[in-house]
Write a structure and sequence with these properties.
mainly alpha; 17 helices; Amino acid/polyamine transporter I; 502 residues; 2 strands; single chain; two-stranded antiparallel sheet; globular
């Protein structure tokens, strides 16, 4: 008698969802290395850009929560978009998300390595076995980061609950340091708070506004990781609650930190320090050893972010493997740990290859800027498609009164169209900003080519899944849940359940 295959364990609660969403969003890392980039794009209007970016992100979070309640699936957008808009855009949604995270993992590994080496240098450890531990060396920081990636992957394989508990403690330390130094800067800063910081019309151009908004949306990227563990939570609603709590916490931290940074630093200082903004703030406000606390918090944030990126990516690929749009290797669940172990290790391996290829870009700062800008467009695409899918899925609410129509259709549609529109405008600005291609993050054609390559590869993989794998997903457009069952759509009481895409 054959045994049933091992399943993922339902052991996670709201706190676990908050931990993985907040760690994946990585507020400390976003603030530490992103405020300078945002200032370079929109000047001192960073606070209002973060606030404006939160509005469509909140609408998209609502869309995720509603879709997850109707159809809980670790494939999230891949499953929901496939059911509502069709298998091709559904597969593309899953693919660009996964590829985006893998690119992010590759680049963040280098950032993590850089932070660790900065901390090592502060401890007067400058070389090992004749190798100079230079935090500005792309090669050395990448190798160190990949060692960390391997370690957090092992922990993720052994169990997501242990990983989220570690992340929760790291978050407590990070936020305590962040709030202390930003609070200190807010009190003692020499630059007066100005209402112009909250005036979007002070931004010099539409292109700068679009790029700044996409960058600001990227600050919030990661909260949806909470929905990737929906098949491992004790209650379906835990995913949404964890995601919303993390999202609002991020908003508060981002606005608080952006104002604090600008209280303490001039625009020139913000831009000049770039990825070292938070550590520069620490050195400006305190003496050693206290000045090293921001660097330690940044190191913890980077490590937690790497780990929390591995976890949802493996689960998204698990959902695709169940539908045979990807290989069956992604569906292997560890019999003892109850995690998609093979997929988790493969994600690490692929990210390692990408990280090594990224050495072709010599400067670490250039790597960061290229990753942030290109992935921002990808994030706008898959968030936008998922929100549109929610509006289509619940379009029957248009006949259930104004309030339900606005919540179920209007908010998701407006949020999705806003992100798709801004992303399209930014893509157009990239194309018209230059007349030649150059492997440089300042080159518009290069920046536009990265998301285009991701989308093109997704279409090729979708064609392979449809015509070679003959995946049933491309017949019904619907993914499977953990028990390989189709769940009915959310409908008014008494309505017949739909089992196929509209």
């Amino acid at each position: 008698m054959s045994q049933s295959p091992p399943e993922m364990r339902r052991s996670l609660g709201v706190i676990d969802g908050v931990a993985i969403a907040a760690s994946s969003t990585a507020a400390t890392t976003s603030i530490a290395i992103g405020m300078g980039t945002l200032a370079l794009t929109v000047g001192l209007q960073g606070p209002i850009m973060l606030l404006l970016a939160f509005i469509p992100v909140l609408g998209i979070a609502y869309s995720y929560a509603r879709l997850n309640k109707s159809e809980p699936n670790c494939g999230s957008g891949y499953t929901w978009v496939g059911a509502s808009l069709g298998p091709w855009p559904g597969f593309l949604t899953g693919w660009v998300n996964i590829v985006g995270v893998i690119i992010f993992l590759a680049y963040t590994s280098a950032v993590t390595g850089s932070v660790i080496l900065q901390f090592a240098n502060k401890a007067h450890l400058n070389s090992v076995a004749g190798i100079t531990l230079d935090p500005n060396s792309t090669a050395v920081t990448t190798v160190v980061g990949l060692v960390i990636l391997t370690g957090v992957t092992v922990m993720a394989v052994k169990g997501v609950r242990g990983a989220t508990r570690l992340q929760a403690w790291l978050l407590v330390f990070e936020y305590a340091v962040l709030l202390f130094f930003c609070g200190w800067a807010l009190i003692t800063g020499e630059h007066s708070i100005s209402l112009s910081w909250f005036n979007p019309f002070a931004i010099e151009s539409g292109e700068a506004f679009a790029q700044g908004l996409v960058l600001a949306v990227f600050f919030f990227w990661g909260w949806d990781a909470a929905f990737s563990i929906t098949e491992e939570t004790k209650e379906v609603g835990n995913s949404a609650r964890g995601g919303f709590i993390a999202l609002f916490a991020m908003l508060g931290l981002f606005i608080f930190a952006s104002v604090a940074f600008q209280r303490e630093m001039s625009l020139t200082e913000l831009i000049a320090n770039g990825p070292q903004g938070f550590t520069y703030l620490g050195a400006k406000l305190a003496d050693e050893p206290w000045a090293s606390l921001p660097l330690l918090a940044l190191m913890f944030s980077a490590v937690a972010s790497v780990q929390s990126s591995v976890i949802p990516t493996a689960r998204g690929l698990l959902a695709m493997g169940r539908d045979r749009t990807m290989g069956q290797v992604w569906t292997r669940v560890h019999p003892r740990h109850g995690t998609p172990a093979a997929g988790t290790v493969l994600v690490m391996a692929i990210a390692t290859v990408v990280a090594l290829l990224a050495l072709a870009i010599p400067k670490l700062n250039d790597m960061i800027l290229a990753a942030v800008n290109s992935i921002g467009l990808v994030v706008a695409l898959y968030y936008g498609l998922t929100a549109i899918a929610c509006a289509v899925r619940f379009r029957s609410a248009l006949h259930q009164g104004a309030r339900e129509a606005v919540l179920a259709v209007g908010v998701p549609a407006a949020s999705g169209l806003a992100l798709l529109g801004i992303g399209s405008y930014l893509g157009y600005s990239y194309l018209t900003s230059t007349d030649h291609f150059e492997l440089n993050p300042d080159n518009g054609w290069f920046m536009f080519s990265l998301p285009c390559a991701i989308v093109a590869s997704g279409l090729v993989m979708a064609a392979w899944a449809k015509y070679r794998r003959r995946s049933p997903y491309f017949v019904t457009g619907r993914g499977t849940d953990g028990d390989a069952l189709l769940l009915p759509m959310d409908q008014p009481a008494g309505a017949a359940s739909e089992t196929t895409a509209p």
